[in-house]
Specification:
about 280 residues, alpha/beta, 8 strands
C-alpha cells in the first residue's frame, strides 16, 4: 500500500502540491529556473503524501536558498554553505521527519563544499537538491564552481576563469552519496519524480538540477535543446557509474547511481535519566 493510500485509510486528507506552498510570492527574476524547481518540490511532497508537520526543508544563502519561505512545511534559512550541516543534525535528532536540503552551486560546492563531501560520506537519510545555474546570480553574475573555464561573461573574469569546473556528480560518487541524479528545471515533472525517488531511497540522495539563470547566463535558454534522457539505466556499480559520469557532457538526465550502503542511523534512545547521562561526562 502506498503512503498516500495508507493515509487516506487513516482519514488523513491528501494534500495537493499547492497545499505545500506558502502565501509568500517568489521574487526570483522572470524566467528563473528556480520557479519550476519549487513546483517540483511541492509536487514531490504531494506524491509522497507527507504531512506538512512531518517535513522540513533547509537552505543556505543564494537565490535558490529562498525556497523554505515559499513552502508551508517547516523550514530553516541557514548561513552560507551550512545547509547540509543543519539538515544532517535535524535528521539525526528527528529521524521521523522527511528532510530536504536546497541550495545553489555556489552555496553547495564553494563555501559549502566541505560539508557536501562529508554529508555524502556520512550517508544520513536526507535529500539534497542543488539548483545549478553555473553562476553567482544573487551577487550579480560572477563565475561559480561549476562555470566552464572559458566563460567570459563576468567582469571579474573577462578572459575566462582558467579553472576546471567542479564535477558535482562524480564528486558525490567518490565521497559516498547513495543516490545520484540530474534533472532539468524545464521538466518539472521529471525533477519531481527524481525527488520522490531520492526521498524513498535510503541514505544521502543528491540531485543536481540544471536551473537556468537567464539574467546573467541568457545563453542557457538553449539548455532545453541540449538536455536529453540518459541512455543508461541506473547502476549500483561504482566503477560503471564513475565511467558514465566522467564521459558525460553534463546534459544527460536521470538517475546515475543507486547505492546499496545502509543509511547512517543515530544511536537508539535509552531509558537512562538525564542525570545518568550527565554522569557519563563528569571529569
Amino acid at each position: 500500500m502506498t503512503a498516500i493510500a495508507a493515509r487516506a485509510t487513516e482519514g488523513v486528507p491528501h494534500l495537493e502540491a499547492r497545499d505545500y506552498k506558502s502565501d509568500y510570492k517568489p521574487i526570483w527574476c522572470p524566467g528563473c529556473g528556480d520557479y519550476s524547481v519549487l513546483t517540483s518540490i511541492t509536487r514531490a511532497l504531494s506524491v509522497l503524501g507527507v504531512p506538512r508537520e512531518e517535513a522540513a526543508i533547509i537552505s543556505g544563502i543564494g537565490c535558490s536558498s529562498r525556497i523554505p519561505a515559499y513552502t508551508s512545511i517547516y523550514g530553516f534559512h541557514g548561513v552560507h554553505g551550512r545547509a547540509l550541516a543543519l539538515a544532517t543534525g535535524l535528521k539525526i535528532a528527528r529521524p521521523d521527519l522527511t528532510v530536504l536540503a536546497a541550495g545553489g552551486d555556489g552555496d553547495g560546492f564553494s563555501i559549502g563544499g566541505n560539508h557536501f563531501l562529508h554529508a555524502c560520506r556520512r550517508n544520513v537519510d536526507l535529500t539534497y537538491i542543488v539548483m545549478d545555474n553555473q553562476v553567482y546570480g544573487m551577487t550579480k553574475g560572477q563565475a561559480s564552481p561549476t562555470t566552464a573555464s572559458e566563460w567570459e561573461g563576468s567582469k571579474l573574469t573577462p578572459h575566462g576563469t582558467g579553472v576546471s569546473p567542479f564535477q558535482p556528480l562524480a564528486v558525490a560518487l567518490a565521497a559516498g552519496a547513495n543516490f545520484i541524479a540530474r534533472g532539468f528545471s524545464g521538466d518539472p515533472n521529471g525533477v519531481a519524480k527524481l525527488i520522490v525517488e531520492g526521498v524513498r531511497h535510503p541514505g544521502f540522495s543528491f540531485i543536481q538540477v540544471l536551473s537556468r539563470c537567464v539574467t546573467y547566463r541568457p545563453e542557457q535558454v538553449d539548455w532545453r535543446k541540449m538536455v536529453r534522457k540518459s541512455e543508461h539505466e541506473p547502476t549500483p556499480n561504482l566503477a560503471r557509474a564513475a565511467k558514465r559520469m566522467m564521459a558525460d557532457d553534463g546534459f544527460s538526465l536521470g538517475v546515475f547511481y543507486l547505492g546499496e550502503r545502509p543509511a547512517y542511523l543515530p544511536p537508539t534512545a535509552t531509558d537512562k535519566t538525564v542525570a545518568e547521562v550527565e554522569k557519563q561526562f563528569e571529569l
